[in-house]
Amino acid sequence: MTRLRGAIHKIEADATAKVVLVASSGPGVFCAGADLKERRHMSSSHVKEYANSLRSTFSYFEALSIPTIAVIEGAALGGGLELALSCDLRENATLGLPETGLA
Length: 103
Description:
The protein has a single domain, classed as 2-enoyl-CoA Hydratase, Chain A, domain 1, CATH 3.90.226.10. It has helices at about 1-15, 35-40, 45-60, 80-85; strands spanning about 20-25, 30, 70, 75, 95. About 20% of the residues are buried. The protein is globular, with a radius of gyration of 14 Å. It has a three-stranded parallel sheet with strand order 2-4-5. It has a two-stranded parallel ribbon with strand order 1-3. The protein starts with a helix and ends in a 7-residue tail after the last strand. Helix content is about 40%, strand content about 15%. It holds the Pfam family ECH_1. InterPro entries: ClpP/crotonase-like_dom_sf, Enoyl-CoA_hyd/isom_CS, Enoyl-CoA_hydra/iso.
């Protein structure tokens, strides 16, 4: 999240930026979301802090004054869905919130 927030800050400061494309570096999935195995070892306060950081970063991204496009070529799950929803969406995307069963 720190790297994403830093990238958003650079884009915001770049007057020549006209559009942001967010894409996966791997085929078949846009973003599978957080590593739930890692989350299992976090304290409840750390999970809350992490979730607040995610929300803040996605809100910051959504507020950019230039168009943001999620290049969704596969599944966008959990936090990946939240990132995609911060952008304009592409047709034929698979979106979901698999962690809802964790509540």
